[in-house]
Amino acid sequence: MAEGDSYEVLEPKPENIERAADCLQEGRLVVAPSDANMGLAVDPHDIDAIDRVYKVKQRDRSKPLTLMFHDPSDWTEYGSVPDADVMNGFVEAFWPGPLNIVVNRQDVFPDELVGGMETISLACYENPTWRAFVEHAEPIAMTSANISGEADGQLVDRGMAEEHVGEAVEYIIDGGPHETTQSTTIIDLSDTSDPSVLRQGDISVSQLNDVRDCF
């Protein structure tokens, strides 16, 4: 375990991951690895903690956080789409993995989490440290662990996370190097009759269309 000015860096051991998960559920913030950027994690039910995320990131409050969970099939607890077969096709093909899917939100989280929007971004990643963490703390909300607009197109690594948000977090879980080359792909399935790609990452439009030719 290493120490920063106001945080501790934890090796991804089971006891440390459980400790960080407990901390998150007490309303504090944790940095953890994901399938792309190091992420700033928060309890999605805790309005005060969500407020701290927006403040430390200097993030526009109209930009929602992403909701994350361990089991791909759990998406129905948090969102809905007009045609579930479309959603399930992408879930089965790419989750766990670096794909965020925007769906219509279920009314189970505060408006502050999603900027008052009627949709919510869902993710289920494959990074083993992330999976161990979210299994203890799920669901969690997450955003990249950097000041908004200052990543300059690069993935947020531990060094950037420490520099940008270290003073605001309790723990940083060291998850090792990224396996992806860019931020996650994001698709919008809130209207399955007119789906769209909001951002292309390592999962390409061609790969998406191999599952369902709709982009």
Question: What does this protein structure show overall?
Answer:
- The chain has a single domain, classed as Alpha-Beta Complex (DHBP synthase), CATH 3.90.870.10.
- The protein has six helices and twelve strands.
- It has helices at 14-25, 47-57, 84-94, 128-137, 158-165, 205-211; strands at 2-3, 8-10, 30-32, 39-42, 66-68, 79-80, 99-105, 119-123, 140-144, 171-173, 185-188, 196-199.
- Strands 1, 2, 3, 4, 5, 6, 7, 8, 9, 10, 11 and 12 form a twelve-stranded mixed beta sheet that branches.
- The longest helix has 12 residues, at 14-25.
Write the layout of secondary structure elements.
Blueprint: E1 2-3, E2 8-10, H1 14-25, E3 30-32, E4 39-42, H2 47-57, E5 66-68, E6 79-80, H3 84-94, E7 99-105, E8 119-123, H4 128-137, E9 140-144, H5 158-165, E10 171-173, E11 185-188, E12 196-199, H6 205-211
Parallel strand pairs: 2-10, 3-10, 5-8, 7-11
Antiparallel strand pairs: 1-2, 3-4, 4-9, 5-9, 6-7, 7-8, 11-12
GO molecular function: ATP binding; double-stranded RNA binding; L-threonylcarbamoyladenylate synthase; tRNA binding
InterPro entries: DHBP_synth_RibB-like_a/b_dom (IPR017945), Sua5-like_dom (IPR006070), TC-AMP_synthase_SUA5 (IPR050156)
GO cellular component, one term: cytoplasm
Largest sheet: 12 strands, mixed
CATH fold-level assignment: DHBP synthase
Q: Ends: how far apart?
A: 46 Å
Instruction: State the helical fraction.
Output: 25-40%
Give the CATH class: Alpha Beta
Catalytic activity: L-threonine + hydrogencarbonate + ATP = L-threonylcarbamoyladenylate + diphosphate + H2O
Domain YrdC-like: 14-203
Enzyme class: transferase
Protein name: L-threonylcarbamoyladenylate synthase
